[in-house]
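Weekly structure sync, notes
Attendees: PL (lead), two postdocs, one rotation student
Agenda item 3: pending single-chain targets
PL asked that the sequence for the first pending target be pasted directly into the notes so everyone works from the same version. It is reproduced below exactly as submitted, 177 residues in total.
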Amino acid sequence: MVKNFAPLKLTISLKGGYLMDYRITKKESFTVLASAKEFKYENAKQEIPAFWNEHYTSGNGRHVGGMFGINIDPQMGHETFEYLIADVYYPAKDIPQGFVTRTIPAFTWAVFPCKGPMPDSLQDVNVKIFSEWLPALKDYEFAAGYCVEMYENPEKYPKGVQDENYYAEIWIPVKKK
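Predicted structure, written out during the meeting:
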């Protein structure tokens, strides 16, 4: 009987190695008027863009234009989270049927710019934040189960949210280690 030994092969993979633009800023609490839906983390990347589409095609955009997309998971680590399509809430206005209000607490936020067509540019930055930036962070750590997406008015751009210069931000609550 003859035995053959397969040669050993090494594969090296390097990831990261680029600078992420961000700023640390304090923001007071604010209340939003929102269309809300619960999502599982595993399907969110596909289902949240469909939720935005459903929001506008159903006519809900006349009540809430969508300045914010907000993930809320207060216990952090559950299989599901609440996602809001939201605008700043003004208490003098009535809350339309089917909408909710939520107060986002005051935090220190790490704010990341996202430039390019939606939802890809936002999803790419989000993946980098949670897979590379947060684990490598020395001074801060994730503070709470909130993640805020802030969107500029798409009417400012020739191709709307599909414009290569479209601007949005991701806000992550952080605290000193």
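Discussion points:
- The first helix runs from residue 44 to 57.
- DSSP finds two helices and nine strands in the chain.
Action: rotation student to compare against the earlier draft before next sync.
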